[in-house]
Input
Amino acid sequence: MPSLNERNARFWQLVLLAVILVGWHVASRNQQIAFFLGEPIQVAGRIWSWFLPFEVPPNLLFPDGLKGNADIYRHLGTTLLETVLAFGIGTVLGLACGLWLALAPTASLILDPYIKAANSMPRVILAPIFALWFGLGIWSKVALAVTLVFFIVFFNVYQGVREVSPVVLANAKMLGANQRQLLRTVYLPSATSWVFSSLHTSVGLAFVGAVVGEYLGSARGVGYLILQAEGTFDVNTVFAGIVVLTAFALLLDGLVGLIEKRLMKWQPRSGETEKL
Amino acid sequence: MSDYALELLSISCTFHSKDDPGQRYTAVADTTLRVRAGEFVSVVGPTGCGKSTLLNVGAGLLEPSSGTIKVFGQPLAGVNARAGYMFQTEALMPWRSAIDNVMVGLQYRGVPEAQARDQAEAWLSRVGLSGFGDRYPHQLSGGMRKRVALAQTLVLDPDIILMDEPFSALDVQTRQLMENEVLALWSAKKKAVLFITHDLDEAIAMSDRVVVLSAGPATHPIGEFAIDLARPRDVAEVRTQPRFVELHTQIWEVLRDEVLKGYAQQLRKAA
Output
């Protein structure tokens, strides 16, 4: 039995994907199951006509042919814009509030119950209110996603600042740092490691906020596409929407990972530590 | 102008527990300690006797319950800006490379970037680490990290150097090397040094004066010894001199009872 190294694992991951797709395809030969589960080939066809401007003539797989609409970009762009805006705004707000509250004990003492309440509230419920306040455009979705991102980043920064090594802090003070310099050279870098661990979660949640917001009321966006398809029992399009969203969530997560790798190179990783 | 660099006058430090204000612990009681400019003073005492508390008071990081601190004759308010502090545990910023760690104090003072880098570079090579500037602390060994910390403190050219068992985590060979290096740097610049240790050999080998503290709680000085060994010294060789042995015996005589007391207290605390 060959040992499971990374390339091996990739192979088996692909095998698993193929098994699932084939299983899905075989199951969907039954018309009744296909009504609920959709058909993988139709889902792929839908994604084709969403993204590519090339028409496909009728053939064995697609008896009706495929239209090359390439019409998803408007929707996908809207969803991504909402996600990125929410992610950015939520992260900056969370960082600022986390730093402020961690460094101002009085304020944090007074605000503590309110923060706990705001965090335990099911925030998706705020969507109708945001729709009322900000209308049906992108800003109501951004607001919803911001509330999801904000708390995750906020709590992580708060924790990060609280756990700054007291010796490093005392050392910086002895070296002559004033309050601003302490913030910039000690608190912020120390909190970033916590922030990055939270960014992976929050980038996914920014997506959730944007799509759920669209789903509850909008005129464009991938969430809107899914809602429309659901209205006509077009389960293939629903699945195609899910696949597209998943792919882009993975992409954004990868981007965060890339930035993290660049910024966090001071952190020792197991097996990489080099002693002299 | 006072000829004392650092004076701790009748310092008392009482801590009380946050949860139960009735519970008090007096770490340091009515302690007076003076360090002349250019003098190397060691403070020895059993573990947990409040040596570090005393040093933190001198650094201005901890406000004493009573007593005054004077720095070159001036009463101290806030952090002691004329002092450099070498901590017992890791105090380097893990997110800064060695050179950036050495530079940080200069940056705080607003020294231009290029000049700060040059000075930091010079100090890194003085502590034997030229070429290691771009390493992060986790990529350096314990001894190298201590050297970086030493450079970080000394690059600011402080008039007073406070050291809290800086080499206690190092192996014996590295430790003797570091001790010699510190002595060489000190004799070149003649700063006032307040050196905290629990190692009597180290204290005698390095200092002009050794102050013995009693076991806690309510630590206070119980003996003071002038070390009249010739300088420059080599910390390894000086230990074989008859005068060193004589001094060691004298001081140990005073210290032994306190160490036993401190040990008994720790046993009681653990029980």
Summary: Residues 88-157 of chain B form one domain.
